Structures are given as structure tokens and as C-alpha cells.
Amino acid sequence: MIDGGSGENAVNAQSQTGTNINRQVLNVQSNQPSAELFDDRLTRSGSGLNDRMAAANGLYLGNPVGNLTLSVGADSTKVVQSSGTLLTKQSVIALSGTTLPGATVELSRDDDGLFNDGSVVAGADGKFTVNVTLLHTNDNNGANDITVRAKDSNGRTTTEELNFHLAVGTVVRFNSVVGTMDFELLDEDAPETVENFLNYQTRYANSIVHRSAKSGDGDDFVIQGGGFGFNSNNQLVTITTDPPVQSEADPANSNIRGTLAMALPANNPNGGTSQWFINLNDNSFLDDQDFTVFGRVIGEGLAVADQIHELPTFNLVGLTSLSALTDTPLRNYSQFTKTIQGTVSVTAGSNLVVGQGTKFTTDIPADQRIRIGTQLFTVLNVNA
Question: Does residue 281 contact residue 305 with C-beta atoms inside 8 Å?
Fold first, then answer.
């Protein structure tokens, strides 16, 4: 309400606010001509009714009851950041945050459209804490998508999204030069296979993904590792294996995209040792061959496996004498395509290669690789 008072040259006006804001001049009292007075009272700079009402209107629209905002997060001591999700072993997680004082904060789990999985009213300082129960079922395999919604008395809403993975099995992390993948192991469904896999953890350090394969029709198939690694002398060697583990293949755990399974020798379902593979497609036909699935990717970690699979592959059998390295994915590597004329000699224990009749200064830039016999060298510098 803006009241210009009563008496000579006075104006009374009422402000009505709501979804649609209206203004109404109730009466004008003056001993001056009404048109002249009315224009002056409305348009006078700074103190005119138009300017005053515009200021009131701006105040109302800009911040009628405070801006509705929402920030929310989980207790950092209860979760671990994984690929695109928050990994936890806790089935009940406390979510805390801030919003408009008095706003109702509601939770919806797994995009069901119903905000009935938790509710609380923010305090006078806008702070709130609400618990959410996470599920691990045959349908979600531990992945829980939580929508948090704040709603005020005017019906305004705003939302935030949080993704959790509730792990009930052992979690392992694959660190690679491309990125990180986390897998939840199926401790209950494949206990012997999981135990066997965990026994190799120290031997998997500095191991490689030695195979990246497509299916016969050209579709993505698998990437495979656990067979080879670098020793302390930076030589690629075969990983020492334990006795084979018996197959624990389970029809309920199919070889579909995103699963971790045991690699097997041909026609020997009970011959698995250290090698494993990650399914990059629906490879359920492997179920009939008793390939044991013993883990699943967490969150968006499979994108890392896809990146490894997209790398160019090379046949390194001749270079390494390891017959399994026919489709090895490598970064920043190209096959030897040029033969240099001349002869060379290498002194044992020396890193100096001496050439006769060669063109080292023009044919071998520094930082390039050369192969002499079966030995591979990186050129540090070239001396005339």
C-alpha cells in the first residue's frame, strides 16, 4: 500500500501483489486541474507514483520471499568418488545442504517420479539433513540415482541430482594410463574365483592389457589382461600363475557388456589362472562355454575400457617372442616401416651403437626407436 495522504493535492494508491501484479489509483484530491495534477503526481522524477511503484514492483519480483536455491552433498567420510558416481558401503546415507528457510526438501530414488523416499523441512538458517536408503537389487546392481527437490510455499521448485553405487561385494580399482575403472566383485556368487583374482593383486602391478579384440562380425568384443607385466628391469614377462581355479559360471551372471570374467584356455572351463577380460558387448554366447563372470563395472568406468579398445593394436610377437601378443593395444606407437642401410656394432654393456655405411644423421632423428636384431633401442642423440 502506498498512501499519499489526504487533503490538498493528495493521492491514494493501493498495490496488490500475487501471480499477476496490479496497481490501482483509488482517488485523487486537488484544487488544481485534475489532468495536470494527475500527470505530475504520476511522472514526477524520483518521488512520482510511477517511480515509486516501479521500485516496489522491482523489489517484489526480484526477491519476493528470497531466491529458491539448493545445494546438497553426502558425507565425504562415507563415500568415495568413482567414475560418475559416489561409491559407498553404507545402505543409509545422510544428505546435507542448504536451501530457502522453511522449504520442503524431498527425495526421489531411481527416477520413479515419486518424491516419497525421504522428506525434511529446512530450518530457519536454510540448512537441512535428510537420510536416503540405497538399494542393491538384481535390477539395479547397486546403482542408485537420487533426485533431491526443494519446494517453497509459493510452489517454486528446484532440483539436484546425485548418483550412488551401493557395493555389497569387494571393490577393486584398475588404474591405467588412460583412466580409472572400479569393479564390484561377486563375492557370494563366485567366491573361489574372487579369491583367486585377489591373490594376484600384487602381481598385477605394472601389468598390461595385452589383447583388444573384435568379434568375427567386427563388433566390439573384449579387452584382456592379467597375463603379462613388466619386471624390475623393465622387461615384459609372463605373470607367474597359481593352480587353476574351478569354473563358477552362473546363468544368472551372464557375459554382458560391463562384466568382468575369467579368461580360459581353449576347451578347458576349469583352467583359469591369472587372466581376465572385460566384456565390451553382449557376449552371452560365452555362458555356454562356462566363462565365469565375477565382477561388474561401477558407474561410468566402462568408458575407460572403451578408450583402451579404441587404441590401435599391433602384433608384438616378433618383438617380444610372446605368442599371445597378436592384438596388443598401444598408445603413441607405430610399426617399424623403414630399413636403414649399412651395418652396426654394439659393445656389450655400452649404450653406443656404431654404424658403418649408414645414414644415421639423416635417417634417425632423436627420440625415435630402432631395432637391431631382436633388441629395441630409443635413440637419445645422433653423433656425426
Answer: no
Domains of the chain: which residue ranges? 2-62, 70-166, 171-329, 343-378
The CB density around residue 176, as the number of other CB atoms within 10 Å, is: 14
**Whether 262 contacts 296, CB under 8 Å:** no
* d(C-alpha 148, C-alpha 161), whole Å: 6
User: Which 3 state secondary structure label does DSSP give 286?
Assistant: helix
CA distance 184 to 199: 16
Instruction: For domain 171-329, give the CATH number.
Output: 2.40.100.10
Q: CATH fold of 70-166, please?
A: Immunoglobulin-like (2.60.40)
Q: Which residue has the cell 553405487?
A: 165
- pLDDT on residue 12: 47
**Which range among 156-165, 193-202, 254-263, 368-377 shows the weakest confidence by mean pLDDT?**
368-377
Name the more confident of 353 and 277: 277
Q: Do domains 70-166 and 171-329 have the same CATH topology?
A: no
Higher per-residue confidence, 355 vs 282: 282
Q: What is the reported pLDDT for 332? A: 82
Judge whether 130 and 105 are in contact, CB under 8 Å. yes
Determine the Cα–Cα distance for residues 343 and 353; give it in Å rounded to an integer: 10
For 128-143, what is each residue's pLDDT tens digit?
A: 999 999 999 999 999 9
CB–CB of 130/107 below 8 Å?
yes
User: What mean pLDDT do residues 67-95 have?
Assistant: 96
Cα(192)–Cα(245) distance, rounded to whole angstroms?
7
SS3 95: strand
What is d(CA 133, CA 63) in angstroms, rounded to the nearest whole number?
35
Three-state SS letters, 198-232: HHCCCCCCCEEEEEEEECCCCCEEEEEEEEEEECC
